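Appendix B. Chain record.
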Amino acid sequence: MTAPAAESRPVPRFGLVAQVDHADLAGGIALFEDADRLGYDVGYVRVRHLQDALSSPLPFLTAAALHTERIQVGTAVIPLRFENAGRLAEDLATTDLLTGGRLRPGLGSGYSAHDAIYTRAFGQVQGDRTEMVNRVLHDLLRFVDGEVVAGADAHIEGVEPGTPLRIEPRAEGLRERLAYGAASPARAAMAGSLGLGLQLATMAPDDGSGRSFEVLQLEALRAYREASREAGHGDGHVMVSRQMLPMRTEEELEQWVSLIPRERAAAPAVAAEHAGVEIGGNPAVFSRVVLDDPMTVAHALLSDAVVQEADEICLVLPFGASAHARHQVLETFATDVVPHLLTAIV
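Structure tokens predicted for this chain:
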């Protein structure tokens, strides 16, 4: 879903973000097959623990890649609160090799408001949660970069004693495709300084200033760009997701309207920007939802200042939609919205 780039701005990539339930893994793979045929550049899955949605996304993404030809596959996001850096480095690299270098992992922090329910399965957070997440993140990056973690002893078969040992396997190009899902300017700047991509979702932390979602998120995006440039990584890569769904008929609209509100944050029928509580229990400002004809959706995206500065635009599918409804909206977005966006942007 790309076109020759104009000098004014590189052509953005287009993708989707979906929730795949364990009870319908085949339907999730079919969704990726649809997106691949329709020309989407990348498909991301949400990650959830102790719920029906994907808890272990990498095996699913491997299967999705084997059923598709070109679409890249990723996560939005893997919560690092639940991860061991060494095992995750192994799993990411193995998945990247199996997918032919098509993996685009998105990493993030995790949940905080009700952390106690995860203790039995995932262990207790040692010390400050943010510090723990940072340790896992920095260790993961060092392992992916090839840090020597030990020297072989006489018990490592087939390896000369003293040989430097690293996390295996190694996957070329994986480091450049890692991204971090950050909402605040501080965390976005951290991602930029580390040479990670940035994933921006449909909410931003409410700082009490009364500023709009768009203004808050634009601040995070620009903090990321500045930090990335200062660290010598150039402009970096920004993925922004939006829940703006094109509808061709009233019947299609009826299929989707019951799925809004999304993310358990809005009151029924709320579609405008609004304040709420995000999954971790913290105050947040949520983006508007648009369910309308394709031209209205295109205009809404083009009027979004964050979208205008992003490198990748992703359509967020509310969970609970039927396979038919998901295919309809993916097709309409690809055929009736993206061409308008490309014409206006480039």
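Further analysis of this model is presented in Appendix C.
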